[in-house]
């Protein structure tokens, strides 16, 4: 074992956080944890991970479930596309591998929704393949240790960091060292602070000699955020049933329940008309419903790459209303459905009180 691997191994065994997914070598459970942890805080995942596994304890149970059931269990975690990836991956494993995981990172990448990072993490932790899983934490640590002044996610950074991390993982126990690299990035060498005295790479780190090690890696240029407008209708029947519309399976909030109306870039002209003439719009998208209230409630939501500003109108829905892609739900069923946090937030903004699910700050499309 080389000296970096040895120090990293020692650090992890002494300081690693006690997390539920670190007590298993089951590739299914490791896979679920890695997908849940993408773009989501550890504390938000901890309890939801256990709950998800209680509902879907193995590949077969996840593959046999309805997609809506999986989405409902995921509700509030954000980045809902991940729930579909898990479900599709489970069905693929059952169909093509009898529910048994391939044991190499290369073979794992054939499973829908599993990219290079997740494949390496599962292969190393579950099967001991000596490959490093390079996420943002590892890129940051590698950039500072090696002193690489290159933008995040550039090949000029990713390639040498991957080679460095692989050399460490190959020098010891892969399951330990892969997780240890992530742990250093999460707890010691964070985006905005460094604790060099606690770091197993202190003696080898180039950035430690810099006035501010947190300047590495160089930030990548930020893409401009799209600005979307929307005109949405919060509709209830006289009996209190809530009208929801299922989003298309591709695009914003794919396949999830949302408020009926218009939202997005390609409907800007109709949205502007709807802001000024909501009665005309509601007659076209929800025929037979009451005219909306005279004033709208303005609400905002931040998706991963989109800022949404919506005008929301209250309308009354006939008890007999039926339309493709729409459903009426009594209050007793609201929390049973896969309602994303944005839907709950928008409804709450007009006084329809749904309990906010614990969620990440951003919701991805």
Return the string of H and E elements: HHHHHHHHHHHEEEEHHEEEH
Per CATH, the architecture of the largest domain is Orthogonal Bundle
Question: What count of structural domains?
Answer: 2
Q: Helix- and strand-based class?
A: alpha+beta
Q: Shape, please? A: elongated
Any idea of the CATH class of the largest domain?
Mainly Alpha
Cα Rg: 24 Å
* Helicity, as a percent range: 40-55%
Strand order of the largest sheet: 4-1-6-5
Give unreliable regions as ranges: 357-365
CATH superfamily of the largest domain: Hypothetical protein, domain 2
Strand content: 5-15%
* CATH fold category name of the largest domain: Endonuclease III, domain 1
* Biggest sheet details: 4 strands, mixed
Helices, by number, come to: 14
Q: What's the β-strand tally?
A: 7
Distance between the termini: 43 Å
Can you walk through the features of this model?
There is one protein chain. The protein is of the alpha+beta class and 365 residues long. The protein has two domains: 3-215, Hypothetical protein, domain 2 (Endonuclease III, domain 1); 226-349, Nucleoside Triphosphate Pyrophosphohydrolase (Alpha-Beta Complex), CATH 3.90.79.10. It has 14 helices and seven strands. The chain has helices at residues 3-15, 27-37, 42-55, 59-64, 67-74, 81-97, 105-108, 116-127, 136-146, 155-169, 174-187, 268-276, 278-285, 341-349, and strands spanning 226-236, 242-246, 257-258, 261-263, 297-302, 306-316, 326-329. A four-stranded mixed sheet has the order 4-1-6-5, sandwiched between helices. Strands 3-2-7 form a three-stranded antiparallel sheet, with no helix packed on it. β5 (297-302) and β6 form a beta hairpin. α8 crosses α11 (174-187) and α9 (136-146) crosses α11. The longest helix has 17 residues, at 81-97. The protein starts with a helix and ends in a 16-residue tail after the last helix.
């Amino acid at each position: 074992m080389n000296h970096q691997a040895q120090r990293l191994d020692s650090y992890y065994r002494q300081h690693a956080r006690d997390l539920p997914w670190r007590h298993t070598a089951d590739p299914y459970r490791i896979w679920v944890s890695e997908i849940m942890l993408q773009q989501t805080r550890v504390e938000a995942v901890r309890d939801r991970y256990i709950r998800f596994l209680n509902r879907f304890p193995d590949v077969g149970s996840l593959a046999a479930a309805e997609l809506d059931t999986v989405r409902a269990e995921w509700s509030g975690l954000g980045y809902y596309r991940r729930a579909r990836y898990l479900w599709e991956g489970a069905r693929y494993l059952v169909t093509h591998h009898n529910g048994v995981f391939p044991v190499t990172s290369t073979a794992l990448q054939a499973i829908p929704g599993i990219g290079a990072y997740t494949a390496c993490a599962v292969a190393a932790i579950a099967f001991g393949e000596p490959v490093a899983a390079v996420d943002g934490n590892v890129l940051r640590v590698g950039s500072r240790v090696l002193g690489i002044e290159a933008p995040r996610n550039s090949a000029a950074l990713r390639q040498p960091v991957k080679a460095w991390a692989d050399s460490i993982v190959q020098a010891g126990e892969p399951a330990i060292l892969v997780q240890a690299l992530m742990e250093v990035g999460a707890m010691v060498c964070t985006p905005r602070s460094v604790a060099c005295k606690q770091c197993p790479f202190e003696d080898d780190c180039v950035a430690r000699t810099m006035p501010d090690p947190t300047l590495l890696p160089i930030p990548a240029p930020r893409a401009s955020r799209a600005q979307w407008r929307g005109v949405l209708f919060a509709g209830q029947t006289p009996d209190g049933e809530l009208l929801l519309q299922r989003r298309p399976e591709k695009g914003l909030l794919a396949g999830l329940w949302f408020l009926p109306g218009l939202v997005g870039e390609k409907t800007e002209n109709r949205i502007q008309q709807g802001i000024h003439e909501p009665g005309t719009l509601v007659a076209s998208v929800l025929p037979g419903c009451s005219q909306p209230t005279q004033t709208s409630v303005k609400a905002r939501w931040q998706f991963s790459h989109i800022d949404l500003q919506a005008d929301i109108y209250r309308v009354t829905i006939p008890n007999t209303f039926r339309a493709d892609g729409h459903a009426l739900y009594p209050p007793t069923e609201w929390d049973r459905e896969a309602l994303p946090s944005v839907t709950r937030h928008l409804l709450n903004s007009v006084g329809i009180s749904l309990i906010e699910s614990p969620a990440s700050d951003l919701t991805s499309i």
